[in-house]
Amino acid sequence: MAAPTELSPAFILRRNAYRDTSLLLDMFTREAGKITCVAKFTKGKGTRTRGMLEPFRLLEANWIGRGEVFTLFHADETRRYALKGIGLIRAIYANELLLRALWRDQPQPELFDQYQRTLTRLLVPADLLALPLFELDVLAAAGYVLNLWHDDAEGHDIVPLVRYRFRPDHGLYPDAGKARAFRFPAVC
Fold it and tell me: Are 78 and 58 in contact (CB under 8 A)?
């Protein structure tokens, strides 16, 4: 039997029931990136641990195994993010972004730290920039870097209230006035 990994900070992005007594967990870890683990319990035992294995809780966890699905070996909760209302909805969306945009088993320590900061910011419902900034971080981590600060025509700074067009193969460039274009607001 292989030895378990070292303890690593981790978040559960999604959990599903698996068979009678187990959970299938999609996790985002600092050292391993996005992974899937099975948490096994015996009937009537592990209730405390099972209740802790929910999204928006920072865990110290390790796992064992090879292949695509690991077995959760140990998990301790270190912080709970008590998200409510619109903050909870935004956090669920952030989890879906991570589930769909990231490759499996690719460490993303900077994005992990940004996700943790985003959850903290989402505790304040009035923080409207938390999610859009996180979206840009996820796009960058997935290899899609959008330059919204300079035009691609000449490299000049984006000017507020000037019309720009966006072409996927080139980026933003000033609208010559020939067609309707989307007006990008100034990004701060």
Answer: yes
Confidence of residue 27 (pLDDT cuts 50, 70, 90): very high
Cβ distance 130 to 106 under 8 Å?
no
For 56, the token pair is: 């928006």
> 0.85 exceeded by the pTM?
no
Q: Are 40 and 69 in contact (CB under 8 A)?
A: no
**HEC per residue, 36-88:** EEEEECCCCCCHHHHHHCCCCEEEEEEEECCCCEEEEEEEEEEEECCCCHHHH
Among residues 98, 109, 104, the alpha carbon closest in space to that of 31 is found at: 109
- Backbone torsion region of residue 37, taken as left when φ is above 0, otherwise alpha when ψ lies between -120 and 50, otherwise beta: beta
Every domain of the chain and the residues it spans: 8-80
Other Cβ atoms closer than 10 A to 90: 21
Architecture of domain 8-80: Beta Barrel (2.40)
